[in-house]
Amino acid sequence: MPDRREEAGQDQVFKRDLLKVLPHLRAFARGLCGRADFADDLVQETAIKAWGARDRFTPGTNFRAWTFAILRNHYLSELRRARHQTDYDPDAAERLLVIDAEQEEGLHLSDMEDALKKLSPERREAVLLVGAGGFTYEQAAAISACAVGTMKSRVARARAELTRLLAMEPAALSGSDGAAAQHARK
Q1: 70-98: per-residue pLDDT in tens?
Q2: Is the CB of residue 114 less than 8 Å from the CB of residue 173?
Q3: Which CATH code is given to the segment(s) 4-81?
């Protein structure tokens, strides 16, 4: 049975590792949900859950993957809980009232965010884990609780879909109806 000093030392190591992974968790959360406020809430809840479960973490295993799995599971739980609720999206309302200047032709970060939002949740998660998160296919598959082949397929399809979406006109990307997207494919 570990003594109090040993437990305190383990808590300090855990705390240090948790603080190091927070920016990565935030980036992953932001990619999953697309909203900074919700991403911050997800990361905070993940940190709380990880701290509460620190005795279940096996030292020497992949701490980052463990915390990403906690975040992912919490995010999915929140999606299931909020399935029947809708939020007022001020950004969407603003886009309906404001027309962007047509002279801006380059790819903007907001175009990539819009394209990511159009991906299915599974594909978005896969491309964020492997592409942005730097996880191997095996690690990403373990986090997502799926087969490695499934993860590879999701990433490949997500990349192909992102390429197609980013080739569209920017107005088609942020449009809420399929008519704009249909027009851009012609």
Answers
A1: 999 998 888 888 776 656 566 665 655 55
A2: yes
A3: 1.10.1740.10
